[in-house]
Design a protein that fits this description.
The chain is of the alpha/beta class. It has one domain: Rossmann fold (3-Layer(aba) Sandwich). 28% of the residues lie in helices and 29% in strands. The chain has 5 helices and 8 strands. The longest helix is centred in the first third of the chain and has 18 residues. It is globular, with a radius of gyration of 18 Å. The two termini are 27 Å apart. The model has no long low-confidence stretch (mean pLDDT 91). The protein binds 1-O-pyrophosphono-5-O-phosphono-alpha-D-ribofuranose, xanthine and magnesium ion. The site of 1-O-pyrophosphono-5-O-phosphono-alpha-D-ribofuranose has 19 residues, from strand 2, strand 3, strand 5 and helix 5.
């Protein structure tokens, strides 16, 4: 409509795109596990769903941990963050394994951005170790171990959220 601002693409709204392939993600998860192996052993892995499920599976496999729990939190509608909703908490069994405070437990997520999700889970398990594959500066202080830091204006595109598509040549104006 005349006078209205043009609609922005997801990439324009979210700043610089940082696409991650399955191969790259697997390599980064393995690198994360190398670091975690120095910190453990861990009684259980807790994945922050849904994004934490994929790294948690890889990390748990590499560390030989077979007790895996989830804490289910929703906040983003694509790149817009709303109120955080805890849809499922940590199970009683796993809480007991961590002595009620999370000692010896490993929390895994794909990334920290603003840190709001991580802060909420840390409050549930203050003594747990919190690991993410990627970290943006605002959330970084909350994480104990991560692999790659990206700038705050970067949007990470994960392989489970994306698909291969045609990209126009540079000479036709592609970025
Ligand atoms: O540091 P924050 O600003 O809180 O953002 C980080 C969280 O956002 C994403 O999850 P999302 O809420 O999009 O849900 P999903 O994992 O189900 O995709 C991501 O997987 C982290 O859990
Ligand atoms: O796919 C995603 N990429 C991101 O950079 C991000 N930040 C918060 N939530 C996110 N989800
Ligand atoms: Mg998530």
């Amino acid at each position: 409509m005349a006078g209205e601002a043009p609609e922005l693409s997801a990439e324009e709204r979210a700043g610089r795109p940082f696409p991650v392939s399955w191969d790259q993600f697997h390599r980064d998860c393995r690198a994360l596990t190398w670091r975690l192996n120095e910190v453990g052993p861990f009684h259980a892995v807790i994945a922050i769903t849904r994004g934490g499920l994929v790294p948690a599976a890889i990390v748990a496999r590499e560390l030989g941990v077979r007790v895996i729990d989830t804490v289910c939190i929703a906040s983003y509608d694509h790149d817009k963050q709303g109120d955080l909703k805890v849809l499922k908490g940590i199970s009683e069994d796993v809480m007991k394994l961590g002595g009620g405070t999370g000692k010896g437990l490993l929390i895994v997520d794909d990334l920290v951005d603003t840190g709001k999700t991580g802060k909420l889970v840390r409050a549930m398990l203050p003594d747990a170790h919190f690991a993410t594959v990627y970290a943006k500066p605002k959330g970084r202080p909350l994480v104990d171990t991560f692999i790659t830091e990206v700038s705050q204006d970067t949007w990470i595109f994960f392989p489970w959220d994306t698909a291969l598509s045609y990209h126009p040549p540079l000479r036709d104006g592609a970025a």
